Amino acid sequence: MIGGYVGLAGHTVVEDMAIIGGLTGVHQFVRIGKMAMIGGTSKVVQDIPPFMLADGNPAQIHNVNVVGLQRRGVSQEAIAEVKKAFKIIYETKQNTAAIVSELKKRLRPLEEISTLIKFLETESRRGINKKTPIEDFEGDLIFPEIPELGI
Hints:
It comes from candidate division WOR-1 bacterium RIFOXYC2_FULL_46_14. By secondary structure, the chain is α/β, with parallel strands linked by helices. It is built from four helices and nine strands; from the N terminus they run βββββββββαααα.
């Protein structure tokens, strides 16, 4: 499902049952995986893996799209495995090849895991989005000075 005023640049691939919120811009050659959900007004510059929830400018992966998976009738067993995959992908600093190897070793060969692995193994022109919001916060918040307001 694609919301209103979404811009998809050339050669963008949107897989089955993905949801893109309104006013989102997607860079050329980006792939959006099966059952992924992207929040409105996002700027997507890298591939969003299947079953993930992304939002922001630039878009960052926030979590697994659990509600979307449940609504599509995905089993609790499969959702639990996708959550484990999320941790392997986003809580390590490994490259994609090492992550795929880890997924194959540690997770059950369910259809959803196979879909995720296939997506990660497919050549990417823009790279896989492996950024999460927690990576942005490293210390004090910096606010601009606004003399007109006395701050």
